[in-house]
Every structure is written in structure tokens, then in C-alpha cells.
Design brief:
single chain, two-stranded antiparallel sheet, 295 residues, 2 strands
Length: 295
């Protein structure tokens, strides 16, 4: 049944993706920020090295853990609760750390890098990169993977003592795997449009989902997931009004966008509004707009 649903969904998608097939349009505000940001990137930065080290380190860690497994059988079920928990952690970090200023060194740095930089660099009218140098504004720095590795080691050790070593290794593999999926999906959200991101189920869903999140009017409130929009659907922060399966396999379809959000989205696509109503801390919303976003 799922295969049939995906095929039907794919046929429907071809007739409902026109908005995200339009050419990218960059406002003057966004153009100025991009030029300033790129000029400040170190000449020693290499985008391919950045992502290469991240993926190689992550895959080696997964391979090592997999090589330590011994007849895991039921331990593979560990993937399910860890993956679901990871989806909610991803959502919560995005909503309450990356978009809410917490004046503590590391957390403040995350907010600064995301809200004050990433969301000024990309908007829903131009959310793609042109060069590998721009990988710096898309991918997390290496220290995030290091922190994740330490957290995974601690949690994996605890799980191995409570259950058995197989559970600990699989927990660690799932956490690192989730992170690599996060980075891969996020990259797919910001590359130029191509056959793969346009037609691959889940990838095309998150590309539209994340592009909508980059609208400067709704960015602080909607579409916080960057892998699968499960937590967004459960927590009521998706910009769509439809069931779970439809949300996960939505693709580029915009028919189900919440009608209350449409006026805000259109308003903040305007360059003049962005100049007057958007700061590095986010949009300046009126009471009616705030109410619509919180409902």
C-alpha cells in the first residue's frame, strides 16, 4: 500500500510544484548580507574538506560500532525509539536554541550562527548556494559532531550497562546516522534544483518544508524539523494542515499550507517589507500575525 501511495503521490506532485520551480529571486537586503558574509570567510576554508572530514569521521564511527556487534537480534529495535527521540531533539534544538537567544557562550554562538547568519543568507525566495565555499553557511562546524560523539558515547555506555553492549553500539550508530542524515537533507535543501531533490520522496518534502521555514515572517515559529517533519506535525508547528502520511510525503505540494499563514508569507517575501520589518533577531510582527503563528 505504501508503494502505491508513493507512486500516486509522485504523479500528483508533478502538477503541484510550480512555486518551487520558479527562479530564485534575491532581495537587496539578502544580497548585501551574502556579499559581506562571503568576504569574511577565511581564504584557508575549504568546503570539500569541511564535509569530507565530517562524513568520513561519522561513517568510520558507524563502521566501528557495527563491527563490534555480536548477534544483536532484538537490539536492532533500539533504532526506533532513538530515531524518534532524535527527531524531537532536532526539533527542540532548532526551536528553543537556534531561534531563541540564550545568553550562554556555546548556546549564544549557535543562535548567532543560525538566526543572525544562516537566516539572513537564505530566504524562501533564494535558498540555494552557488559554490563550495558556501558550505560554511550550510553545514555545522566539526565541533558539533565531536559533541554528538561524546554524548553518544555516554548514552551508549549507559545503555550497554542497562541492557547489553549491542544496544549501546546501536544507540551510538543511530545518533551519528541521524546527524549525517540531518546534514545531507539540509544540504539537499540548499543546492540548486535538480532531478534528485525534485523527485526523491522525503527529500522533496523536506526541501519545500525547509524553504518555507526560511520565509522571514514565519521562521521563528514554523517547520523546525530538518530530517522528517514528524515532531513538527505532532507539536503543531508544521505550516501544513494535513495528516501525518500526507505531511511526510507532501513533496512540493502547497495546497495544504495553513491559510492563516499565507498573508504573512507573502508579506515577508517583499524586499521593502524585509528592509523595514526584519532585523538580525527576526521579524517584527503585529499582534494578528503573532496570533496566527502561535495558533
Amino acid at each position: 500500500m505504501l508503494v502505491i501511495y508513493i507512486k500516486c503521490y509522485s504523479l500528483h506532485k508533478e502538477t503541484s510544484m510550480s512555486t518551487f520551480s520558479k527562479p530564485m529571486v534575491m532581495t537587496e537586503r539578502q544580497k548585501r548580507f551574502r556579499e559581506s558574509y562571503v568576504n569574511q570567510i577565511s581564504p584557508f576554508y575549504n568546503g570539500l574538506v569541511h564535509i569530507g572530514v565530517m562524513y568520513v569521521a561519522g561513517l568510520i564511527a558507524i563502521y566501528y560500532c557495527a563491527s563490534q556487534l555480536s548477534n544483536p537480534t532484538w537490539a536492532w529495535l533500539t533504532i526506533i525509539p532513538v530515531a524518534i527521540a532524535g527527531n524531537f531533539v532536532e526539533w527542540a534544538m532548532h526551536k528553543y536554541v537556534m531561534h531563541r537567544l540564550i545568553d550562554v557562550f556555546a548556546l549564544r554562538a549557535i543562535y548567532d550562527r543560525h538566526t543572525r547568519q544562516h537566516h539572513q543568507y537564505f530566504t524562501d525566495t533564494d535558498y540555494t548556494i552557488d559554490t563550495v565555499k558556501e558550505h560554511r553557511i550550510v553545514f555545522f562546524p566539526w565541533r558539533v559532531l565531536i559533541v554528538l560523539g561524546v554524548a553518544g558515547t555516554v548514552l551508549g555506555y549507559i545503555a550497554s550497562k542497562i541492557f547489553n553492549p549491542n544496544v549501546g553500539y546501536i544507540l551510538y550508530m543511530t545518533m551519528v546516522g541521524h546527524y549525517l542524515i540531518y546534514e545531507t537533507f539540509h544540504y539537499c535543501c540548499h543546492v540548486k534544483e535538480n532531478w534528485f531533490v525534485r523527485n526523491m520522496p522525503f527529500i522533496n518534502t523536506i526541501r519545500r518544508h525547509h524553504a518555507a521555514h526560511h520565509n522571514l515572517g514565519i521562521m521563528m515559529h514554523k517547520n523546525m524539523n530538518l530530517t522528517f517533519p514528524l515532531a513538527d506535525w505532532i507539536m503543531g508547528t508544521s505550516d501544513l494542515k494535513r495528516g501525518l502520511v500526507g505531511t511526510l510525503l507532501n513533496g512540493f505540494n502547497e495546497e495544504h499550507v495553513d491559510p492563516k499563514l499565507r498573508p504573512i508569507v507573502e508579506k515577508f517575501r517583499n524586499g521593502g517589507v524585509q528592509e523595514e520589518k526584519v532585523t538580525l533577531e527576526g521579524p517584527i510582527l503585529d499582534q494578528q500575525e503573532q496570533k496566527a503563528l502561535q495558533s
